Amino acid sequence: MLIVIIAGAIMLAIMAAIIIGATLISKKCPKCKKFSLKKVSEEELERVATTRNVRKDIKDASGKVIRTEYKEIPVTKITYKVNYKCKNCGEEISKIRHREDKPLIY
Hints:
The protein is α+β, with helices and mostly antiparallel strands and 106 residues long. The protein has one domain (2-101). Helix content is 24%, strand content 52%. It has a three-stranded antiparallel beta sheet with strand order 1-2-3, with no helix packed on it.
């Protein structure tokens, strides 16, 4: 039992380190190498309406999967530019980001 708790705590610590590391890397200034980028603005470049094929398992009352259905749902793919400015050296940079918005209920 103790081993399971320790293993769970280790996995949680590793996941937290990965998340924190990814966040810090995205905030690092390419010029002065400090973690001091601040988002200044965000500008939408492109919005494309498309569909995505999703899988849905149909279960019976006991929770057993009785069949699988595939359904196309509408999604919107958004490309946008995020502008950052370094609080340390004043360097201004832009990054292109992508996001996919889908309906809450499908």
